[in-house]
Amino acid sequence: MINRKFVNTTSISRLRALGLCQSATRASRWVAVAVAILLANHSVADTADTLVAAPAKTTTCYLDGLDEQFQCGKISVPENPKQPDGKQIDIHFAILPAIKNTHPDEALLAIAGGPGQSAIENAAGFDRMLTKVRQQRDILLIDQRGTGQSNILSCDDGDLNALNINEDDLDMLAITEECLAGIDADVTQYGSNIALKDFEAVREFLGYTKLHLYGISYGSRMAQLYMRHYPEALATVTLDGVVPMQQSVVAIGSSIERGLNVLWRDCKSNPECQQQFPDLVDEYNKVDQQLADAPISQKVRDPQTDEPSDFLLTRSKYSGAIRMAMYMPNTRSLIPHAIHQAAQGNYQPILGIYSLTASSTGIAMGMHASVVCGEDIHRITEQMRKDAKESYISSSMLDGLEKTCEAWPTKQEDDSFSNPIDSDIPTLLLSGELDPATPPNWGALAQEKLTKSKHFIAPYATHGVAYQSCGNDLIAQLVDQGSIKEIDGECLQKDVRRSFYLNANTVEALPIASTNTDIKTDTTAPANTAEDKE
């Protein structure tokens, strides 16, 4: 569902490292496409009511991936809240109306990730996941300032072909300066706290007395800020794929390394995967070292256009493709086969995964930079920098972001921004054991001062537990009951693991001459731990 005008795909090759959330609406068609390819993919606590400069209109609209009629509208707000008579920008919203609206004064606000994703563009995914909530309450989607239809801060990627660029040749400082020059906005006004004012202004305009929040990935930071600044407006909160206030998102590098280690573990403990790919880690490292020495060029057919194209496989593309594929169970299951084939000199499977993931995030890179450069980069310690040097993924990620932030004007948040949220709002926290971006210990960190909360770890989920498990049922229960007391996460124990692809066609093993009878099956799932605070 990505719209390429929203994204600088060239910068994504280098900077997508912090795209914390995948577009949920693409997940259902990833595997089919991938298999086809394999065969041939801060704090501001002012009141919000001073922000609305003009009345909004709500009109009937249609949304991508859905065939119903919905209600869409916008409000106009000052770009700089301290200059109410200055430049105005429009904040767009969409309402997925309740099927039977028994709570007309309530809505669930679903907040997208990124930072930089459009909530409205992800309407279909939110609708499917929140279908039980929508039976009795509206679902409210707001394009955060700088994303989607709300004065998007995007960068033109020109005529560059993402398949054959060498990211090491890119001058990130010059690219950032060029992007900045093309944006008609005061980019210092697109941080999370200012955007939060817009959310509250929309709530007041629409007349909802209470909101239930669902924040996915970076959206969980926005939800926590809502808890800090406007607690009286909230009934319940769900944080999924949690980014705690205490954590800089730049620390995602170590989370990616953890995600890889969990992948190696899962393959090793699966007899078929271990038998088919007994040297998976060595093969991964072999290809990584080859690409560290020099990129590999091949003639291929573009997976999107089927036109002949030059594919330059770089170390950045290779690690980026595997990293992004770990976000969803279906693409994660493709990774061992793709690595094994690359080690044999066949790079088509990696091309397939790369092509799927390169255009799946839908991130507005200008907004992304405004958030990360103002809220995260200054929180990097010397120890974190030292640790990052131990990993190519972490070091290249940090290097690219520091070059971007060197050129990007920001208003740096003070130390209080990083304080844990102290709240008694009923809060559900969901973490995936297999998450390569926001690991379970991040959820535990966010829960520190949430006095009425439960944290569940889904043993078989990656990023976005509610999309992959009964997590959506737990959200509906929380919204319906307004309490976490009766919520039991036992359903998350259901084994929904996806088998690894052992070849281009199937998850079943190919016939082999002999079997290793010493391999034992590990059927023990990671514990579904729940920290209760009531």
TrEMBL record:
Transit peptide as UniProt keyword: no
Keywords from the named record: Hydrolase, Signal
Domain AB hydrolase-1: 108-243
Signal peptide (residue range): 1-45
Record has Hydrolase as a keyword: yes
Every Peptidase S33 tripeptidyl aminopeptidase-like C-terminal domain range: 393-491
One Pfam family, short name: Abhydrolase_4
Listed InterPro entries: AB_hydrolase_1 (IPR000073), AB_hydrolase_fold (IPR029058), AB_hydrolase_sf (IPR050266), Pept_S33_TAP-like_C (IPR013595), Peptidase_S33 (IPR002410)
Family statement drawn from the similarity comment of this UniProt entry: Belongs to the peptidase S33 family.
UniProt cross-references to PANTHER family, sorted A to Z: HYDROLASE ALPHA_BETA HYDROLASE FOLD FAMILY, MONOACYLGLYCEROL LIPASE
Protein name: Transporter
Organism: Shewanella litoralis
Taxon lineage: Bacteria, Pseudomonadati, Pseudomonadota, Gammaproteobacteria, Alteromonadales
